[in-house]
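subagent[fold] <- orchestrator: predict structure for attached chain, return tokens only, no commentary.
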Amino acid sequence: MSGTVRLTAAQAMVRWLSVQMTEEGTRFIEGVWAIFGHGNVAGIGEALHGIGAALPTWRGQNEQTMAHAAIAYAKTLRRRRAQAVTSSIGPGATNMVTAAALAHVNRLPVLFIPGDVFANRRPDPVLQQIEDFDDGTVSANDCFRPVVRYFDRIARPEHLLTCLPRALAVMTDPANCGPVCLAFCQDVQAEAYDYPESFFSPRVWRIRRPEPDPREVADLAALIRAAKTPVIVSGGGVIYSGAEADLAAFAKAHNIPLVETQAGKGATGWDNPMNFGSPGVTGSDCANALCARADLVIGVGTRFQDFTTGSWTVFGNPERRLVSVNLAGYDATKHGAVPCVGDAKVVLARLSAALGSHKAPAFDQDARLAWHEAVRRVTAAPEGETNALPTDAQVIGAVQRMATKDTLVMCAAGTMPGALQVLWQAAAGGYHMEYGYSCMGYEVAGAMGIKLAAPAKEVVCFVGDGSYMMANSELATAVMRRVPFTVVLTDNRGYGCINRLQQECGGAEFNNMYKDSNVEVQPEIDFVSHARAMGAHAEKAATIAELEARIVAARGRDIPTVIVIDTDAVSGTGAGGHWWDVAVPEAGGPERLERARAKYTAQVRRQNVVN
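subagent[fold] -> orchestrator:
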């Protein structure tokens, strides 16, 4: 019979986490990002110190951004490993709510362990405590409930015996995967309990590959056989399943062209003849033309987000059918889709076997080749000397020309996510975009998380001045930990992306660019000096040629490099694109709004939606 071991609840938690293993023999929770306060320093802090290298602790600069690093780490490793994040009970905890929402939207595992109020309630109200006048059980941590997949409050030491296995079960479940919050009452962290020794035996967590229902496979095979112009929409689920090669082989074997979502981009190399680029709002001309004709849309591991579907105007064929291959039944049945619930890799194998030698009718490759020429044209370096500021497309072109097979580009919000989706020619595995939540401030911390997960990759982070201003402090963490990556900081002096959207919706230029904001002095922010002050190598590129040279030079450093380049705030990508449903005021505006509303109404009539 197993004996017991007397530990504090915090000591028991970190000891248990340190022996939760992957099939590859590594810890599933690689370590813990921590910023300590009164709500976690004495209990969790001391426990983390005691366990040492068996569960490493890293100090961040901001609770939200260190969580972003953990999320990027998990995304890069395809949800096979994760990290934990701990904070104190008040603003530190609520700082992490945004990161939890980001992880939830993107279906990514991260373990949030915020401190909580005293379970015994003797010193109430404690510093930073939120009091609900009508519910004594509520704390600030209840904000996590709608943005995590599993929430629990550890109010007794023995709660760990049930809540910890539940937490890991969620984080390793491919269909239910997402963030977990274990709100840990600060007095309970320090309480001792006699835990069963067997509780701390190492455990291996397997990532399941659920088989599809054979009837659903047969239904899908029948639809594909009957289709004349099918298209595959490849989403992030393809990458999480490790089904990249399987999808490419399936597309080739059955002659079905494919397009890639933001989350799915990079699963198939850009030069694969079956890959027509991205669909939707920030899609390629050839992909959107293909989708407009499609009579069968086969989603594989995608949620069919509005950017992918052009707010349901991209798939314009009135006879089109929608199929969704997805691990989550919730996603598989969206928009009236015929579902096929199962792991992408398994479903593709079963489906290919059911189709046998069937091939879809031939499709036109000329549009794809014409698109590649359009990309080359808009991303080309400017010819001769010019006083014009470079466009975002030219900046992308500079990085593209210097890229190697090991280059991985990443971004999250602003102009660059759309520009990269439509223009970046991703090698397989060379693209990381947080666009489920499109969270400004993810970029610098995310780049660090990617590099920690994939140290052999050359990580290039695209970030605008707006996002950089929101969250840049983990640059100092990367310097301290000697985590090298390259930041290409495009300075257009404001929120250029939303400024363009504002005008497209008939609005006046207002409160987005510094020049249109209510300020006394136009700022002249020295981003180079700022980055240098945090220890990074930083310099400014005056031209596209200088940017190219600085990209190459950064490869020899063991600290982050920040390259600042001024860009044109007005121009868009210059190629591709599609309508996006952003509602325009219906009444009470000037003529410019009336014109925009008329265009909006015309597009709404084109929406081909089944809910």
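orchestrator: received. Logging for downstream: The radius of gyration is 25 Å. The mean pLDDT is 96.
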